[in-house]
Every structure is written in C-alpha cells, then in structure tokens.
Amino acid sequence: MINVTALLKNVPNYTCNHNIDEIMITSVEKDNREVKKGSLFVCIKGFTVDGHDFAQSAVENGATVIVAEKELDVDIPVVRVSNTDLVLPILANAFFQHPTQRLKLIGGLLARMEKPLLHI
Predict the structure, then answer these.
(1) Which residues are within 8 A (CB) of 73 and not within 5 positions of it... i.e. 6 or more apart?
(2) Which tens digit of pLDDT belongs to each residue from 23-60?
C-alpha cells in the first residue's frame, strides 16, 4: 500500500476535488474490471472506448481514487490531469518503487561483429 500524495508527487499540474493526504491505495488500474477495494483507477481515452465512461463502474468495484482528464460525477476523490496517457506510467513507476532505477544495462560492440551485444 502507498499513500496517494506520495504517488502523485512526480505528476505535474494536477488538481483534486477532495483531500487525499490520508488515502492509501493497493493497486493502480486502467481497466475497471480489474479494480478492487483500494485501487486507484486511471481513465484512459482510447480510439473506440473512453475510460471516463467506466468511472462509476470502477467506484462500484471498490476504487478509492480516480485519475481523469475531466470532471466526473462520482463519490470518491478525482485527481484531474491534462493527459492520463502520460500520467499512468509515472504512477505505475512510483507505485512499484521505481524498478527501472535498479536495472543494470551493459552494451558493447565487438570489432568483427556487425551487431552490438546487449546484456541486461
């Protein structure tokens, strides 16, 4: 579990309609069918389906906070951002405690090989 305020500290220019300082979340979801009690639901607008249309379903499934690009008529806090497509990876990275910072990447090129070697 992680505090929502800590999760949002790397998200630029967000607004919220409620106090979220004490809220803890158990997961970050973009599919309302995967939402469970304590989840943060991110509304993603796709080509054919808009995640904002499923915000109420996410609330019914147990979402604690919703991240959206527009105002929503729901009974839980809504964090407004300008682009949820850009914010979702920031939230996921923070939720999983920045896993990419722990990766070691080594690359090299041998003189007689045309393709570079890559080791992760």
Answers:
(1) none
(2) 999 999 999 999 999 999 999 999 999 999 999 999 99
d(C-alpha 25, C-alpha 23), whole Å = 7
Residue type, 76: I
Residues paired with 25 in a beta bridge:
2
**Are 86 and 7 contacting, i.e. CB atoms less than 8 angstroms apart?**
no
Output the pTM of the full model: 0.84
HSE (side-chain half, CA atoms, 13 Å) at 46: 9
48 by DSSP, 3-state: which? coil
> Averaged over 65-93, what is the pLDDT?
96
Phi and psi angles of residue 111, each rounded to the nearest 5 degrees, phi first: -60, -40
Q: Which two tokens stand for residue 60?
A: 């019914």
How many angstroms separate the Cα of 96 from the Cα of each of 55, 59, 106? Answer: 23, 23, 23
Q: What is the DSSP string of 56-103?
A: HHHHHHT-SEEEESS----SS-EEE-S-HHHHHHHHHHHHTT-GGGG-
- Report the alpha-carbon distance of residue 75 to residue 55 in Å, rounded: 10
